Amino acid sequence: LSLNEAVRQILPVLGAVDLVIVSMKIHYLNQALIENALWTLVILGRPLGSFEGSPFPHRMSTSISHVSQFMSDPGVGVVAAVVDTIRNNTANPGVLAKAFWAIVNLSLLDCNKQTLVELQVIRLIVKSMV
């Protein structure tokens, strides 16, 4: 469902992002669930009208936007949840790959960049590679 751009705009409004974050917190030991939850955040975090991981508009689009404020709202806690997942899974390549991918899409939003720096996500990424 979340591959369709129109649906990706509706899912956060219906509370999908909140449900994903809550499920990650409750089931943090379930690696399969965490990987699928992160993949959902990767898809929902893709810019609308652009390429994956790119802040520049697609040639067929006049502008880009992200799904909504849900991907940057500290109250929802997407950035914090992804960073916490990295901290708790430093030895799990499947989880880390999806978490890092989610970080790429989250970092396309200027408002998330400072939060990522404050949470020392670069240090966590390097630490997980050692």
Automatic annotation (TrEMBL):
Residue windows of the ARM repeats: 77-121
Protein name from the UniProt record: Ataxin-10 domain-containing protein
